[in-house]
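User: Hey, my collaborator sent me this sequence without any context and asked if I could get a structure. I don't really work with proteins. Can you help?
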Amino acid sequence: MAAAEGARKKVIIDTDPGIDDAMAIFVALRSPELQVLGLTTTFGNVHTALATRNALHLLEAVGRTDIPVAEGSHVTVKKASKLRIASFVHGSDGLGNQDFPAPTTKPVDQTAAAFLVEQANLYPGQVTVVALGPLTNLALKIGQIIILGGAYSVNGNVNPAAEANIFGDPDAADIVFTCGADILAIGLNVTHQVVLTDTDREKLEQCDSKYARYLCKIMGIYYDYHKDAYLIKGVYLHDPTTLISAVNPSLMTYTEGVVRLWSLDCVYNGGFSLMYWFCRYGEITAWTGMLTVKVAVTVDAPAVVELMMQRLMTDD
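Assistant: No problem. I've predicted the 3D structure and written it out in structure-token form, which is a compact way to encode the shape of the chain:
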């Protein structure tokens, strides 16, 4: 049974689709706890223009063209335009090299930043942004920002120090992490515990849900990447885990501290996210006086996978 409209958490998904973005978006659409106000797009897995095309296409594929899409920045906050794109993970089109036809719908006539500000003003303190890509669009205070970003005690997935979304625009990430908003960060230390196995994939392939059928069509390259890069028979559920933290935060535990980022200027640690737990230092540092954020440290991985599977395996 759907939740009452007023009780549903209002979310905007800032996204760079991306196969696991597609999973997360579908889980959001299938979650009665959430009211998806819109999708905003950014660069990351693909360039921003393609992210917008993919977002529109995903909504068309499941009959949800009532949800607006607003296109975001094509460059970092420091105007860098030479961006890292993960075509080797998601395919050159971001959706498994399926060569889907162009969407017939169009994005709204607003930038992502303008759309975010508008929705924050319409629903003061009620909007949660689930940020699944680099954080360039997010430099404002709203209800909550849930970020897929950082590694926090494990190796990154771009270099040993950095996770891809933070690496994509570390200067934007530093602005967001220190802006004073209510922030929850979901890092690789958590998402690498949540795996969609080959057995789970077979279950999706055997059901009649339009969501599952679509995802099974695009996931091949994503599974191949994980087999080659991580030697696992399955895929990490980065974006769906982040989205599910908005649906049921109790599936994770959290610590709290100040998070700062190294910029790309640092050759070895570019995009490195470092958390400060308030040791007593004699000197004033770049962390002194900064407001804290929450960072996920543990996850009930089987429960996250089960919830995702439940949401994707039916259309009702």
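In plain terms: Residues 5-312 form a domain with the Inosine-uridine Nucleoside N-ribohydrolase; Chain A fold (CATH 3.90.245.10). You can pass these tokens on to your collaborator as they are.
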